User: What shape does this take?
Amino acid sequence: MESSLALDAFGAIDRTEVIDWRAVQQQLQIDEVGIEFIHFPFNRGGVPTDSTLYGAFIIQAEARYPIFVPLFEERELVALIPPTQLQSRERVNRLYSPQLYQLIWSKIQPHLRKVKTVYYAPSGQLHHINLAALPCDEERYLSDRHQLFQLSSCRKLLEGKIEHLQAGGKAWVYGDITYDAPVQNKLDDTATSSTLALAEREWHWQSLPKTREEAMQISHILDTAGFSVQQYMEINATEQTIKQLINQKAPEILHFGTHGFFFPTPDKQYANLRTGGRHNFRFSTNPFFRSGLVLSSGNQAWQRKASIPNQEDGILTAYEIASLDLSNTQLAILSACQSGLGEVKGKEGVYGLQRAFKLAGVDYLLATLWNVPDSEETIDFTTTFLQNCLQPQLTIRQAFHLTQQQMKAKYEDPYFWAAFILME
Assistant: This one.
């Protein structure tokens, strides 16, 4: 096999550079592997089919060449995904089953004897699966067998990134956000349907009281570690505050305790439909408008109410985040629902909040794959993770793995510990 793999799997946003897999291999220790998942349409005799196949390239530290492992057909994975009408906790418990492990990992595991650490880059629908929560048997998860570190591409191992959280610097903490404007405005006169307008008025973002406790604990941890902490709470957690980072140096730490949203690709008949309110986000053809974070007064835009003059609308979309300069931000924590989701576009990965923060320049991003509860369990995860990050002997990756192990020991249900994923 040639030493250079001309595969899209080894690309990132800029795919002009061909990466020699041996360069990745040289970054691996004897008990480490790199796994690059791929997915591709299946052609039979040169004729396209409706099948999408998945596979994995396994790079071992001392192997003569990568091992390719055929895995499954996409429809097999989709068939295991529970109906959306179920509650998040029930969906998680149904999805993370022995069948999911067999489909994704059973063919890979025989190649991982004596392997401690697995660096992996997901592809396609695997972006929406936390491999750490795959149940190997009745008592163990995959993260009990290996340290699992998710990368956007195995080429990330070639970057000379600072892997320890640097104490000091600045930190901005958002929480306990007021989603309704101080004074309710009249409904925008451009409403096209009274029924739709009523539905928009009834659908609004509820307050998250536990995010105040989370923000206070996060602030205390960072202040004790020597960070200069700026809190943005209640009506002060505005979109304008984060928009400052277009022209000024970003803080080293960003924490958002708020609502996040992600809308899947709209059906063709609804594409570019503009009816106001949340539908302006829901039916956009641009996936960067279909995901975002909700900040102060965000219900104004969400419910089709008149905006406050000379202010942002309170809906911070992935499109807007991507335009910020967050190159100084080492860690962003999104304690928000579905902040790790997005539209999977061909071989380009996921288009949503995670890509937006990466385009903005963030080194490490903690995000979620499903609706995390406004609860003590969520606070426990984010604060424990941050405390572990501040231990000088731990890298940010190691701090995340340790946090997963600690949370598993306290909360057996993966719903409470497996929503969070660390991306870089």
Remarks:
- The domain at 170-423 is CATH 3.40.50.1460 (Rossmann fold).
- The longest strand covers residues 47-60.
